[in-house]
Amino acid sequence: MPRNTSINSVLIIGSGPIVIGQACEFDYSGSQAALSLKEEGISVSIINSNPATIMTDNVVADHVYLLPLTCESIEQILQERQIDAVLPTMGGQTALNLCIEASNRGIWDKYNVKVIGVDVAAIEKTENREEFRQLMIDIGVGVATSKIANSFLEGKEAAQIIGFPLVIRPSYTLAGTGGGFVHKKEDFDAALNRGLHASPTHEVLVEQAVLGWKEFELELLRDTNDNVIIICTIENFDPMGIHTGDSITVAPGMTLSDKCYQDMRNQAIKMMRSIGNFAGGCNVQFSVNPENEEIIAIEINPRVSRSSALASKATGYPIAKIAAKLAIGYNLDELQNQITKTTSAYFEPTLDYVIVKVPRFNFDKFKGANKELGLQMKAVGEVMAIGRTFIEALQKAAQSLETGRAGLGADGRQSRNLEEIMYSLEHPSADRLFHIKDAFELGVPLESIRKATLIDKWFLVQIQELVQLEGELRRYQLNNIPRDFFMTLKQKGYSDYQISWLLGNVTEDEVYDRRKELGISRVYKMVDTCAAEFPAHTPYYYSTFEDENESIVSDRKKIIVLGSGPNRIGQGIEFDYSCVHGLLAAKECGYEAIMVNCNPETVSTDFNMADKLYFEPVFWEHVREIIELEKPEGVIVQLGGQTALKMAERLEALGVKIIGTSFENMDLAEDRGRFSDLLKELEIPYPKYGVATNAEEALKVANEVGYPVLVRPSYVLGGQGMSIVINDEDLEKAVVNLLKSLPGNQILIDHFLDRAEEAESDSICDGEDVHIIGMMEHIEPAGIHSGDSSAVLPPFSLSEGVQQKMEEYSIKLAKALNVRGLLNIQFAIKDENVYVIEANPRASRTVPFIAKAYDVPYINIATKVMLGENKLKDFSIVRKLEGYAIKEPVFSFSKFPEVDKQLGPEMKSTGEAIRFIKDLNDPHFRELYSQKSMFLNAQ
């Protein structure tokens, strides 16, 4: 049937700030859904409190409400706008929970608003553990033995009946919060209490633990005619017992028999049809007994999920876009396949490649955290890689992680401690994948590894074969490796760096040159959803080593934008926001905009965002070959955070033009010692400092500049490794630890300005003029990382003289660094004196916040300036902020209850929210400010 013409305006509920378990995948889904509805002439309003997302840009929606995700905010919007329907399935668990609360309060009925994409009864059925269990039994779908408990006593009785080991699953929580396995009776009481308190309804499911079973996910879409299609089947590399967000996952399923798959498929369709009469998407999770392929249902989520983003990028099928159209009444066969443009959306994608997702962890930010993985998600991001085989994709994923690995081992980072390795295999953590390879290298038998990990033998055999290949490679020298064997190594995902390391006496560049001599180069294949059965029009590519190249190079002038890789603390969604605006600006200036990134959660990796998307690791070898193929006018590194910036030196050496600020000037700002020398030359105040390369030099510097001192390495993001120390003993420990984790790095020792205030400025420079985007005052004092500080725009208590100095120093530095584009500067203010702490000539996490607060597309303007297409005087910039905007950090400490939550110079927040206040008498502001006042006035 055609779309429901009674729906002319839709409210989409976002997911709020980034937290562990709910990240930027909902920026992708919300943005795609909003644009999909706008195509239909529907007015779209969005509520979301996250300023760092594309979703909260006016380019996406007609009306954006940067408000707290509460029923009061919902009612405010409904009073201001005539809203016909609400779509709550694009904002994760946060949006669903808010939808339920608003329904229970009668808000939707009061304002005559339809809930589309799901119905409230379906949410209740899927989130209420007992209702879900009973429904599965009623429709003949297997479930684990379990009992519901609403009290401590009921939980104890359930455990006695089911027996150990068992699982505790709280109702209505996100990413497994409060849940976990209980192996022993003596651990049960504490785990039960934790689960009951985590559930907003004080309800848990006590369930039989199916440890070691396989885990699978299916992504489904359903229309109003009750047609259901399976978009993607995802298999977990890790067995049951590890949250899917922390698991390595693979698509399509590698170890499923056809009989088991068909059975699982039928059950998934039956489950989706049983939870309510609605049109949209859902995610179903199953567990399969590896002995007899018995299937049990784990859960069903009637919304787009983290896996939906992965499935969408894996198949090229725009799940959120189609789900939004289904929600307003269209049927699948009435919609166009976005890839072929000639067939309908009523089809199931076919993959002729393999995708592998590997999670990214940040345990280094949570010192003392329990690193063992379980039912509570702990990953802060993820990467996806595409290859012709599982092992090629797995090695590419390892190269994408931004952890210093050049692939799966063979890079000098291997462990040789057998005891440590075997412990890791039995107690999974972030390094288990690499330790499996290490175990094979040490000669541990495959069956021993399988028993320790319970990972399917098929996957282990793939990794074991790498060890055999490496043994064979060591028989050769670079100049006599047979071409066929060299090609095999590349098809197995080996990077040139790994091959150079294995050979032992050659460089990465020498390996690169040798394979080029042999005619071994990457070719690029199109992601087309239909295994080339129909012609495709998707400019979406991945690399492999074969003969035919499907990426046709145009004769247009091109710009490549390097993305930010996986989300992690210190480098998050704000850089993807910047990259997307960079792409849009480049296209507006007439360039062919090319994106390189490997993060499946992001808007930048939507196949229709760039003119051409290379879903590839932001890893030197891959970037180099894309540049050699496309021959761009230049590369933008200023928008992708540290991931892109660290490529600048090698791009410069290769003769590739860096768009915007030059490498030399970016390096000058990053090199803390040289930068301080520049400040001295410009007569800009800065804290006394010195540079050290070892602990002995550091002690000498610290005693010269005076304690307390701030210890930090050069070339880092998110305050990595920073600490404030007050004596020689602590300084020695800090320097030794830094040099252990960052060998060869310079250590900067600054005198720390105790009880100083902190502020920031962001600006754009075109080489002649400097425009101050915004100046912010931090609520927390200096010493707490800017990403963990609440910041107020514009400053609320800084004197006019201080603000004039900040502006003066910003302009001086922008011109001295010859900035073309963006510049962020951080200041410390003490006794009306303004000191410069650091300058970053690149996109910062604060620019999206300022852009949303002032309603000005600053990244778009900065990109056009970087490209040399415009000068600042070409833009008429009008700011619209009345009152103040506050940027408030959000933390995920609930995932790590055992860690020290005290804030310091190393960033720990996972996301941020924006809040607008009319004046400084706002109660929320007064509460935040009172904490600063107490600290600054302390004796």
Automatic annotation (TrEMBL):
One of its GO terms (molecular function) is carbamoyl-phosphate synthase (glutamine-hydrolyzing) activity. Keywords: ATP-binding, Ligase, Nucleotide-binding, Repeat. Pfam families: CPSase_L_D1 (PF25596), CPSase_L_D2 (PF02786), CPSase_L_D3 (PF02787). It comes from the Bacteria. This is carbamoyl-phosphate synthase (ammonia). It comes from Sphingobacterium hotanense. InterPro entries: ATP-grasp (IPR011761), ATP_grasp_subdomain_1 (IPR013815), CarbamoylP_synth_lsu_oligo_sf (IPR036897), CPAse_ATP-bd (IPR005479), CPSase_dom (IPR005483), CPSase_lsu (IPR006275), CPSase_lsu_oligo (IPR005480), CPSase_preATP-grasp (IPR058047). Belongs to the CarB family. It catalyses: hydrogencarbonate + NH4(+) + 2 ATP = carbamoyl phosphate + 2 ADP + phosphate + 2 H(+). SMART domains: CPSase_L_D3, GARS_A. Its EC number is 6.3.4.16. Residues 133-328, 676-867 form the ATP-grasp domain. PROSITE patterns: ATP_GRASP (PS50975), CPSASE_1 (PS00866), CPSASE_2 (PS00867), PROKAR_LIPOPROTEIN (PS51257). The keyword Ligase applies.
